[in-house]
Design a protein that fits this description.
Blueprint (H helix, E strand, L loop, with lengths): L1 E5 L5 H10 L4 E5 L4 H7 L3 E4 L25 E4 L1 H9 L3 E17 L13 E14 L5 E6 L6 E4 L4 E4 L11 H12 L8 H16 L4 E5 L3 H14 L3 E7 L7 H9 L8 E6 L1 H8 L5 H23 L4 E3 L4 H6 L26 E3 L7 H10 L4 H4 L19 H21 L7 E15 L2 E14 L7 E2 L4 H14 L3 E6 L13
Parallel strand pairs: 1-2, 1-3, 3-4, 4-9, 10-11, 10-13, 11-12, 13-14, 16-18
Antiparallel strand pairs: 5-6, 5-7, 7-8, 8-9, 15-16, 16-17
Helix pairs in contact: 5-6, 5-11, 6-11, 8-9, 13-14
The structure holds xanthosine-5'-monophosphate (XMP).
The site of xanthosine-5'-monophosphate has 15 residues, from loops.
């Protein structure tokens, strides 16, 4: 285990990814995590991430000196490097010239373990306005750049290493090499972590934790909650009850599809309860147009419905959540990142469900890793590679008010889009694609008559981890076919648009 201590920098999730890519298991924990807790986890190494603050300011994120005295190797990156210098008696101050972007760095100590197989000169990715002007006592300066005399420092006998640049960013030419050197040569990691062992270990851990307790899971039919539910079902079988709330904001026919897989006729050992709460949700959403308010209403109502079902079941010991890592980051609970959207699944917990503890078996996984876990669990491919679908469902793909009529429009348009993408054989190349109903009405002409109807927006993105995304290049003839089918087959739509925005600055969903 490697622990990544999060100081709120923008590349933190990339650090975790690079470690996983080296087949080393890692977890991200806040800088507020207690030292005792870190000791208990007994990591083979610790990585301190970048962060937006200045280490010498009073209220900045910091960590106590004892972290560096555990005998566990520590790698500080950017802010993490400055923090190491600051806490251990070096000097950090505003740099005369900040460095941003690709920067030439020169290795001064070729025999440093962190620079094994790294040439004397190479490009690194810098992003800093403070710098280490004086290395901490006992540390050796191991690299410099034109504007940064202490671009890297180390105290090899204590296994402490600091890099001012970001090796996790691909623009750092030998970044992966440096991270691998830290993991394999300095921490002694074997690099043998695999998804199959993660799955087996998770199931064992869950079984041990749950004992003969009762477990309750909110199943949405999406990839995350499905993988979490199957993992739980494999661990504790019929001690698990899954409640599936049909909030009327699912894709066309999806409620029935979920019931086929997880219901009594499906392959899994669990208790399945479907609640048809469509009207209730439409009632609460009537007249509401503000995106965050819609999200809150859907999230809260979901919890109320879920609670009512849970009350009928009575006391349970554990509650399962299908939270994955990007949810944690984007909701601002994983670190210092700003709240972009209040994700359904995170933060909002049922108050009145009588349970002891939460189980989040996927909390440390990225989306592509959740899918790999799903395959390991033997979940059918069509479910594992299903489109990710947000908790608030079509509610955030309908700009403006949500009601039954507008849900039907977006459901029908989306079904056509998905059908044509499947027919064209390009679905495997796309990360996520869907139709959204805009609140734009515009003039058209159909059969000699003037129309004044809605525009459907089509979106398709390529993405690895859903943190960044690019608009997909869908063949023109596919878009044409989808457009003409939607206009002809879906009432109240007279225009179809294709969204070319990447993330950032856009988000994948519209709200
Ligand atoms: P955004 O729109 O934030 O979406 O770029 C990133 C990914 O997250 C999904 N998403 C959600 N998933 N609850 C979820 O479980 C939510 O509230 C939620 N909002 C967005 C979105 O579909 C995309 O895959």
């Amino acid at each position: 285990l490697i622990i990544v201590i999060d100081f709120g920098g923008q590349y933190n999730q990339l650090v975790a990814r690079r470690v996983r890519e080296a087949n080393v298991y890692c977890e991200i924990h806040s800088y507020k995590t207690d030292l005792e807790k870190i000791k208990e986890m007994a990591p083979k190494g610790i990585i301190l991430t970048g962060g937006p603050a200045s280490v010498y300011k009073e209220d900045s994120a910091t960590y106590q000196k004892e972290l560096f005295e555990l005998g566990i190797p520590v790698l500080g990156l950017c802010y993490g490097a400055q923090l190491m210098a600051h806490v251990l008696g070096g000097t950090v101050e505003p740099a005369p010239a900040s460095e941003y972007g690709k920067t030439l760095m020169t290795v001064d100590q070729a025999d440093s373990k962190i620079f094994k197989d790294v040439p004397t000169e190479s490009t690194c990715w810098m992003s800093h306005f403070d710098y280490i002007s004086k290395a901490a006592p006992g540390f050796e300066v191991t690299a410099h750049t034109a504007n940064c005399p202490v671009a890297a420092m180390e105290k090899a006998e204590d296994k402490l290493y600091a890099l001012q640049w970001h090796p996790e960013v691909l623009h750092t030419e030998y970044g992966s090499q440096m991270i691998n050197n830290f993991l394999y040569d300095i921490c002694g990691c074997a690099g043998d972590w695999r998804m199959d062992s993660f799955v087996v270990e998770s199931i064992e851990k869950i079984r041990e934790k749950v004992g003969d307790g009762k477990v309750l899971c909110a199943l949405s039919g999406g990839v995350d909650s499905s993988v979490a539910a199957v993992m739980l079902s494999k661990a504790v079988g019929s001690q698990l009850t899954c409640v599936f709330v049909d909030h009327g904001l699912l894709r066309k026919n999806e409620g029935n599809e979920v019931e086929e897989v997880f219901g009594p006729n499906g392959p899994y050992d669990l208790n399945f309860i479907r609640v048809n709460a469509q009207e209730r949700f439409y009632g609460k959403l009537a007249g509401v147009t503000e995106p965050e308010q819609k999200r809150k209403i859907i999230g809260e109502e979901f919890i109320r419905v879920f609670e009512e079902e849970a009350k009928k079941i009575g006391k349970v010991d554990f509650l399962v959540q299908g939270t994955i890592y990007p949810d944690v980051v984007e909701s601002g609970v994983g670190g210092e990142s700003e709240v972009i959207k209040s994700h359904h699944n995170v933060g909002g917990l049922p108050d009145y469900v009588d349970f002891k503890e939460i189980i989040e078996p996927l909390r440390d996984l990225f989306k592509d890793e959740v899918r790999r876990a799903g395959l390991e669990l033997g979940i059918p491919e069509n479910l594992v590679f299903r489109q990710p679908f947000p908790g608030p469902g079509l509610g955030i793909r309908i700009i403006g008010e949500v009601n039954a009529d507008r849900v039907k429009i977006v459901q029908d348009a989306d079904a056509i889009y998905r059908e044509e993408i499947a027919n064209s054989g390009i679905s495997a190349d796309l990360g996520q694609y869907f139709a959204a109903l805009t609140n734009m009405q515009s003039v058209g002409v159909m059969g000699d008559e003037r129309t004044y109807d809605y525009a459907i927006a089509l979106r398709a993105v390529n993405t690895v981890d859903f943190m960044t995304a690019e608009a997909s290049e869908i063949p023109w003839e596919v878009l044409h076919k989808v457009t003409s089918r939607i206009i002809n087959e879906v009432d109240h739509v007279n225009r179809v648009l294709y969204d070319l925005t990447s993330k950032p600055p856009g988000t994948i969903e519209f709200e």
